[in-house]
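Could you show me just one protein sequence together with its fold in token form as a worked example?
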Amino acid sequence: MPSPARPTGRAARAAMVLAMTAAVAVSVPPAQAAPGAAPPVAAAPAPSAGQAPAQKPFMGWSSWSMQTSSYPGLNPTGQYSYLTEANVLKQADAMAAKLKPYGYEYINIDAGWWRDQEWTPEFDGYGRQQADPERFPRGMKPVADDLHRKGLKAGIYLPVGLEKEGYGGGRLPIWNAPGCTTGDIVHSDLRTTNGWDSSYKIDFSQPCAQKYVDSQAQLIADWGYDFLKLDGVGPGSFKSGDNYDNRADVAAWNKAIKRAGRPVHLEISWSLDVDYADSWKQNSNGWRVDTDVECYCDTLVTWDSSVKARWRDTPAWTRHAGPGGWSDLDAIDVGNGEMDGLTKAERQSYMTLWSIAKSPLYSGDDLTKLDAYGISLLTNREVLRVNQQPGVPAHPVTTAGDQQVWAARNHDGGYTVALFNLGGSPAPVTARWSVLGLSGKAAVRDLWNQENLGQYKDGITEALPAHGSRLFTVTPHGSALRTTGYEAESPANTLAGHAAVSDCDECSGGKKVGNLYEGGSLRFENVEAAQAGTYDVNVAYTSGDERSVEVSANGKPATTRLFPSSGGWGAAETISIPVTLRAGRNTITFDSGASGYSPDIDRIDVPRRS
């Protein structure tokens, strides 16, 4: 039983994103290409048989970060002008020489390949996007062929829906679909869709609709592309309502790609709704969890433009990532120093989070101008192994303040542990072994510096600079931590205000306490502690968004703790909070406060001390 929704700042961010991307939705007259038989296109070699896409997070480069920046020299003839065949192949040469040995292989061409400098599009006689002759004078297939000859993979981009300029008055035929026209595949009222309303919404109740997506997928496959970014997908991308529900589009693309006879990685974008994660997982190989990382300013990114937001928005998606599909945090712009717009500490934290979250690792930098520090970040094999090895992504194990600890258990029984200081001034950050469920000693290896630090008892503390981080592997040499569990729904507890017990399939005992809002509270009674001290209490909870709760023990002043989204009101996760207890019996209270909205509580586990 989740607490009611509360207002958030997402609307303001949506307005900002839409303003920055307004140029994409420019309306121009429909293409005048006459219908007719398209010349046959020889298919490029397909990847090796049996290689299903996205068994690991993909690695590579994308053009979008450089296209959007006003950094001097990047877009000399206007916004997005960087995107040309010559520039793409120049970046491919640099990646092949500098990064390919470390696993980077995709060269992804983003928005604009079918539009000229004025954003006027090119379409064929079947309503399908065609290469702009100014940007890609040889067409798209020769570019993919060149990338394959370099031992790389080729990626391309499309917006979801039928672009308005490709409608052709509804009279254009659909390739390989006799009797079908563009007028047969959209709703009769020409309702719009995608994050910019730049397309007509496809009506998949019409039999011709799938044929159109099939024709697009076949064209991409025949050109030899290995990757498609389908953009503006909803629910999400800051739009809501039936017009912007593109689940049927994504399913149609998944089906079309399978029919086209070439394995193509399908990545959907941009700021998707986690409530529909099961659909994204079923029909795609990756999903963007946030808005664009780019700042649309005179650098590629800035810390506050939206890099920092990933620490807040990623946890909800952690449970959904795995072989076949990964949560995409967007480009890693950490290689160019001044052009990136970040400090060295910020660049390392950026790369650390992307790596432990098992996000795809694709640079948006100018690979021809990587500085030494950028190369060290992009090519540290021990850090890349964290991203590429089998296992689950890391998630926060302490509450979501400025000082955070993220961790994941690895197949060998050890842990990947990251320490972050997201604050604007230096601060110490401590990872206590108890938050990992361990006691005693553990061996620590520093992955960024590639050195063993020795054994540490009970935990490790590091002084971190503003926006700084450390990344370790922790190998336990002690024993598992013993705890005593207390269920939130126990009749021994005290509920106040709106608080109430409700069902929860993922929760311990199938129950939880929810409705902790505007004075709702839950007090655990008779919590035992063998001796006085501060205990790392593990709190199992559910929350559809980031929420805070006031925690107190024995009636003492409360401390506000911020819990990240668990991924939904039925999705249970665990966070650790320090609570000072006295010897003997204690009470621990979770209170929303008079005007607050708090997560639902499943149970707590209190460490035992002999």
Observations:
- Residues 1-49 have pLDDT under 50 and may be disordered.
- The chain is about 20% helix and 30% strand.
- The CA atoms of residues 231 and 269 lie 5 Å apart.
